[in-house]
Amino acid sequence: MTFNRRHLLLATPLALAGCGGILAKQPYLARADWPLAPPPPASGGSIASRGIVQVQSLSAGPTLSERGLITLLPDGSIHLGYYNRWATSPAQAVTAALIAWLQASGEFAAVVGEGSSLTPSLIVEGTLDTLLADPTNHIARAALTLVVAKPVGIGERPIAQRRLTATAPLTGATAPDLVAAQRAALGLVMGQAVAMVSRAGSVVP
Q1: All domains in the chain, ordered by first residue
Q2: DSSP string, 77-88
């Protein structure tokens, strides 16, 4: 065995041991799944004087088909979080939140999702357009486009269509800060959505 080869064989375990020490110092980052849907406010005790509302599954806008938390960077680009994600897809979570908020309002006899055997008097559908944190401007943004329609025969007659938007203060840069601000913005949008559907329900014969 030559001297160079013997020297290499002796040095290799030491080099690997050094690498192991470096790797051992790297912190382990576990993924965190955050709940998105903000809880609805307590019912005001109103009497359910309107019919049945069916909420169809909301579509996801650009980048919102992923579960990672979205942050708007100073250069206008988007950062999609890998270690911090919503527990379910945002569109799915917002669909469930909209149903919960409409139910909690007490305005309707029933609020159901797709696949229900109940015949609705109103159908709500739409798209989750925006849900992100904007640290540069210290806010979180949420936007939802909704269409409320009345079933007519085998089709639907649109009654109202609006793009609902809201912002909420962003007080820090940690994941809990980003989550809290986006949930707050979404809660404001949910309040607008309930008011919109309630108004549409009041004009349906």
Answers
A1: 32-203 (3.40.50.10610)
A2: -EEEEEEEEESS
